[in-house]
Amino acid sequence: MEWRCRGITWSGGVPGLRWRGGRVSALGYGQALAFRAAGERRCPGARDNPCPVEAVVPGRATGGRCPECARLDRAHSVAADTFLDDPQPYRVYLAWFGPGMTKVGITAEARGEARLLEQGAVTFSWLGRGPLMAARRTEEVLRQALGVPDRVAYERKRAARHALPAVRDRAGEIGELHRRAREVGGWTETLEPLEFVPRDHAEAFGLDGLPPLDGTVSELVDGGVVTGRLLAAAGPDLHLLDPTGRCLALDTRLMGGWVLQGAGEGEAAFSAPVTPAVTAAADPTAQGELF
Question: Does the pTM exceed 0.85?
Answer without folding.
Answer: yes
